[in-house]
């Protein structure tokens, strides 16, 4: 099940490099991209831009009567987080569950994102949740979007989550009623439901953002966000065949994971494609074999959990006896670990290890840059496509056609040299004073990260005494384990802040779902109506998060701007608002030990 390697890439890695020169180059590239406005450089998708949130996949005209009933657990979000919460609660015997989602079916990220070429860049045997419970083995190492969407809906069927779901419904406000010990849930369908427990699984990358480029509202051609791909305009489907782009001049703003996958298909059909780049992605090889039936027959009960743990340990830098996954992710980490292991006489102090890791990182990124040279024919274009930053400053990408696309005569890379697009006009896009006239403009500009949580979740959250979550977190995120908030009883959050970072996000969601279902089951068995974070428990976890975060602060501060480091605006709050600095392995062990103690330490029951 190996992904293999590019011979050209390995040859490139063998060449010498000057660490001091690379450090200087990395710093230079970072500094030219720093902006005072940070996340404020992006536009919120509302008002005149609200149509970028429209659902192109739902049948129009849906309506229903408002709901005023009560449920035991109301889950906001129908992606993997909501599905895992529902599944784990069902396994605990909870029957009264309602999932609410603005989409017209389950799937979350994989419902909305159906752009051509969409696929997962984490291997499917690790990424897709509940494989053994559903009884499914993916068709190939890296699943394409349609298979993942189908699997999402298979989970919902398996655990009977369609029973009481509210689709095409957006929660606008949740308010804690202290007298009734219930949450009041208001929606855009005029619902006023009640729930004993609320679980928000809105996803960390769910709200599209637009670049705040002057004139963005003026463009008179066709435009859409890649997360709402307009097949009515382009023709085709997620596998390509974009016949509607024939004869069209198309621009794509953004060169992250979405663009890497959709650019090759767009280039195949457009008369001309302009790719507007601020920062190049790291593009490693991706080999995607079909699932081997003989290998599938060898799988024993518990294989999925074992494989998930193996992958997560490797990408966390913890050596394993066997690399079960053997892909670009474990190779990235493997080079660091092996580099340390081979370093006879390496300084074992924290500073010495950091230096050894940095050198191994330089080696891997030299390999990535060498791959660009081996593929892209035009030297100037090749140089512009080389990433000059540490490998985990941005999410690594794996693709076999993206770099090749820039050899096509109908494709132009417009490198903005870190500055971004200058402005947008009625006719097209301006970079460095030159206007590129377009018929269609596609925003592959990603999703809101680092903005107010309630804004990203799309709702107002009001706790005890009328305090909003935005007010509560005005001076930084405050939780226990990233899931419980003082003043917000019977309220659970499934997200990243103050929780363990995992490259495979559903792994974290699964751990959180198991934890939440344990607490609710514990309450039911104890005849407890309300559970809430204690003041002492919350303060202790916030302190632990800040103390642990210091270990990673310098790394991200020196990274090129992106959503991993709040667009380069690190601050004292970055330590408090970010991932749990001890890593996911430590975080998951904390949760496991907490459950085994069975005392609900840090929570108050009433």
Keywords:
606 residues; alpha/beta; FAD/NAD(P)-binding domain; seven-stranded mixed beta sheet; five-stranded parallel beta sheet; 21 strands
Please give a structural write-up.
The chain contains 21 helices and 21 strands. The relative contact order is 0.15. Mean pLDDT is 88; it is low at 7-14. The termini are far apart. It has a domain at 70-106 and 161-207 and 450-533: FAD/NAD(P)-binding domain (3-Layer(bba) Sandwich). By secondary structure, the chain is an alpha/beta fold. The longest helix has 26 residues, at 350-375. Strands 2, 3, 4, 5, 6, 18 and 19 form a 7-stranded mixed sheet that branches.
Low-confidence sequence ranges: 7-14
Shape: globular
In CATH, the architecture of the domain at 70-106 and 161-207 and 450-533 is 3-Layer(bba) Sandwich
- The top-level CATH class of the domain at 70-106 and 161-207 and 450-533 is Alpha Beta
Strand content: 5-15%
Main beta sheet strand tally, sense and closure: 7 strands, mixed
Count of DSSP strands: 21
The CATH H-level superfamily of the domain at 70-106 and 161-207 and 450-533 is FAD/NAD(P)-binding domain
Q: How much helicity do the residues have?
A: 25-40%
Average of per-residue pLDDT values: 88
Rg over CA atoms: 24 Å
Q: What is the CATH T-level topology of the domain at 70-106 and 161-207 and 450-533?
A: FAD/NAD(P)-binding domain
How far do the termini sit from each other?
52 Å
